Amino acid sequence: MANEFVNSFVNTVGTSNTVVYSPTGSIDYATVIGVTVANRTSSRIEIDLLVEDTDNSITYILKDSQIETGTSIVPIGGEQKLVLLPNQSLLARASSSASADVTVSALEITEE
Fold first, then answer.
1. Residues 6 or more apart from 28 whose CB is under 8 A from it?
2. Distance (Å, rounded) from C-alpha 25 to C-alpha 2?
3. Fold of the domain spanning 2-110
4. pLDDT single digits (tens) 54-81
């Protein structure tokens, strides 16, 4: 079994769904071990964190979660993990344009 830690850094997430992490096609699955969403604006924002499946269905991880000015939230980390399969993606959307930075850390696993 091959394991590889990866990071994804997506700046200025705005009001449309933005892919913040998608496992590469060559892995069997990925365990998202941490997600941090930071507010980069001078006012409160709301953030949605979603998983898009292979059939384009959307499942919310967060919905309208508020982030105060100058702060961040950690919706995935500690005891909370998320498993994604190839062709699944983690998306983010904010309440105002270019208002959130998202950092994702994952362990991508390939079974040999």
1. 85, 86, 109, 110, 111
2. 14
3. Jelly Rolls (2.60.120)
4. 888 999 999 999 999 999 999 999 999 9
